[in-house]
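Morning!

As promised:
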Amino acid sequence: MPPSTALRRLADDLSARTFQSIAQLVYQHSRICLTADKRLLLANRLRARLVELGIESFDAYSALLASHEGSTEIDVLVDLVSINHTQFFREIGHFEYLTNHILPTLVPKLLATGAPLRLWSAAASSGEEPYTMAMVVAEYLREHPGLAWQIEASDISWRMLAAAEQAIYPAASVTAVPPVLLRRYFQRGLATRTGSYRIQQALRAQLHFERINLFQSHYPVAAEQQVIFCRNVMIYFDERSRLEAVQRLARHLAPGGYLVIGYSESLLGLTHGLTPVQQGIYQRT
Ligand SMILES: C[S@@+](CC[C@H](N)C(=O)[O-])C[C@H]1O[C@@H](n2cnc3c(N)ncnc32)[C@H](O)[C@@H]1O
């Protein structure tokens, strides 16, 4: 059977009605919007999971999700449908702004008060974003030592968080890391790990990992974050959910703190009380 016919068959297996009820559950749980054109994508992503569970139809899978035993399966489902693409130094302008504007503004004030520097990567995926933040902060603090700092790294996906905590990356993933930082903050894999890189323990120790759904009732992170990166996740939410997430994240900022969103995202039309300072960067004034 040609691949296109096989794919069509998968889409046909997943009826529009079952797609709707699965998409509704995904939305209720994560606010990720699966529009009708994602039916084939969902069918493809679920196929292996159905085989793994020994379930023969999408309708039976939908019934499992709706049942009492299905409550943990929803986490797996969200994991399967979420887009986790990320990179070291992705949207580099944000890291340049961190180095050239945010840290020079915040660090002297924090050193004077003795308060720690707190940053949060709220859709951390497999860790490239929070480790890039960590490298940038560590580099800056080489010249301005003495400040305690920590990065919260959170995501809705347990699978992504586990990868982030493990912090092992293939050589192809680290090409955007400047060689000096690669030498300073990564260790090369040996034996079976040849060709891969692991973030060094000292840098890993600056991160704290937590599974956080941006729509859960309480965020278990310190209330006054100086910098929150929440990039390339709000594009998957509808306007109402974007508003809710942005308002809640804004309340987690310290006065003078910064919220950073993705280059292709916008807070246009949302009431958030933050002041735009640069593309994708907003400050609580
Ligand atoms: C495309 S990645 C973005 C990674 C990184 N911020 C970046 O810009 O490179 C989006 C991440 O958002 C996570 N995500 C989706 N819905 C979420 C939610 N409701 N709460 C927290 N994280 C969520 C996904 O699991 C995924 O890892």
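Residues 30-32, 82-86, 90, 123, 125, 129, 155-157, 160, 213-215, 231-233, 262 surround S-adenosylmethionine (CB under 6 Å).

Hope this helps with the figure draft.
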